[in-house]
Amino acid sequence: MRNALAYELVRVRTLRSTWVLLLSAGLLQFASGLYWGLKRDLGDLDAFASAFGLVDRLGALLVAAVGVAAFGLDHEHGTLATTRLVLRSPVRIVAARALVTAGLGLLAGVLMVVFTAAGVVTGGGALPADAGAAGRVASAVLLLTVLSGLAGVALGGLLRHTALAVGIFAVWVFVAETTLAALADVPVTALPISGTALSAVPGTLGYAALVLVALGATTFTLARRDG
Radius of gyration of the chain from Cα atoms? Predict the structure, then answer.
């Protein structure tokens, strides 16, 4: 397993797009934090919490793209056979990519939270006085980015195409969940992305369960289809 993790760490360190995507997620949140920090008519709204929402979904999409690349680029460049030859076990391959991507997702979430706070302060706004409320918002962001990165790994492994996998994730986040909530009366708290972003237990547990099932399916198909 140590060799599998080392192999994966070398791959992500040398892939420039990984760091561009993670930094972009942070910068988007800085811009959102600055926008809300500049507002002076918030009423009961909190600038820090309000800075998340649509923008943290964009951040989740960028992190998912990092996860997709873990398998998508391997398939597109025909290097998966080399990976299989070096690491041999599909379980080790998927586990290593999931662990490294989860770490990158956590890093992205921390960047998003810190950059949001920096944006709010730069705009002259105030950070939340309630540390507990701020902590819940930050925890939701971290869960969202970690799970989205893992979802990206699974999509990349199952679909074997980077653009298709990222496109499907984007459609789910920005079209399907909105449609389900508006037209099918599905509670927002029960939806995987929206529920996780709102710290809702049903959505978060559902998202985690979907990710686990998808990663299991990825391991199975890697062993059968790419063996």
Answer: 18
